[in-house]
Design goal:
Elements (H helix, E strand, L loop, with lengths): L22 H12 L4 H12 L7 E3 L2 E6 L7 E6 L5 H12 L2 H8 L5 H9 L12 E4 L9 H16 L2 H6 L4 H14 L14 H14 L28 H19 L10 H10 L4 H11 L3 H23 L6 H18 L7 E3 L2 E4 L4 E5 L5 E6 L5 E3 L7 H9 L5
Antiparallel strand pairs: 1-2, 2-3, 3-4, 5-6, 6-7, 7-8, 8-9
Helix pairs in contact: 1-6, 2-6, 3-8, 11-12, 11-13
Amino acid sequence: MTPSVPGPRRASGRGRRAFATTWWGQAWVAALEDSTLDSGRLSRGRTYARQGMVGPVTIAPGQVKAAVQGSRPHPYRSRVHLPVLTGAQWDTLLGTIAARAGHLAALLDGEMPTDLVDDARRAGVPLLPLPTELDPECSCPDWGYPCKHAAALCYAIAATIDTDPFALFALRGRSREEVLAELRARRAAGRTADTPPTPAGIHAAGAYAAWNALAERVPPLPGLPAPSPHAAALPVVPPSGSGLSLTDLEQLMADAAARATRLLSGDTTSLHLPQHQDAVRIAASSPGPEWFHRLIQNTGAKPTAFARLTRAWRHGGPVGVTVAEQPHSPDPATMAAARTALTTALTEMTDVPVPLRTWRNRLTLTDYGIQLRLGPDARWYPYLQENDGEWWPAAPADTDPVAALTAVWQRTGT
């Protein structure tokens, strides 16, 4: 049975910032808008992009292309060309990146350093497009330059550039893998000749024999006892003024024993938690409202943020908390595949276009208050936008983005 379609929560954003949130993404949109005086076709292009009329986008050296649906039954083939850099320009650009370690670190974190772009431009390397460099092409009969279909493609690609600045490198002629390989080669070539050689080590067979000999002399660890609640009376009472009761100490002892059991079995997920995440872990075990409030007070956390992280732990453990706190930049191909799968599923579930926004590891159905976040464990974590305007973890994660969407879709109904 087809589920009912919930009404939009709010209208899509308008203007340049509706398509790009980063300064380099907005620079791409600005280059498009500064390349023409035809505001009418730009406006139609924005509408097409918002309505999801742009199909899967392909980025190749010197061009970006996609099928764009217009008013006719069959989509048009739209392209936007951008000059690739020459060999000398690439040599200059790679040298600029290699000169400062922070440049590469920022790029790998999904950021485009402003000083990198400025340094490259002063050296004659235009990494960001100039208005005169964008060259649109479309199979439609529209004579506009650009036509509304090519304009829609330009607006749609801004979100990809927002998420992955390496898309600009690909448009200029070299992929992410090629750029990283050349930077590694430069670093290797720059090492001095007097670098001490790497120790030769020992043969694997000898290391294995030594380990076996050692293992034979070490007695095996005793088997782990089955965990049981602490029943004996504690030998001491809590210090006066500590605010702890005997029940509190027993709960702490039970928690410590449970963690020790997990560590001995090889589960180290909670071994190096920072203080606030360890407090979230304890709160997620439902110790009671009094403990919950104490944990908030002793960590200095904001109650709402702490409650949101507690829910994230219950749905995904420490990885769930990491997903709630830290956005990251995954492989663009993974995000593109998930976006395509979700677009197909939403088309089957609804009879209206559903805008889908991509930012770093997040896919957001803004009009419906649904967001999927890709975790470092390659699972998709569903979020819902609550009445406070914040995104809250809403269900356990799933390796399939469509399954993760389905887990929360019905909950958005009116």
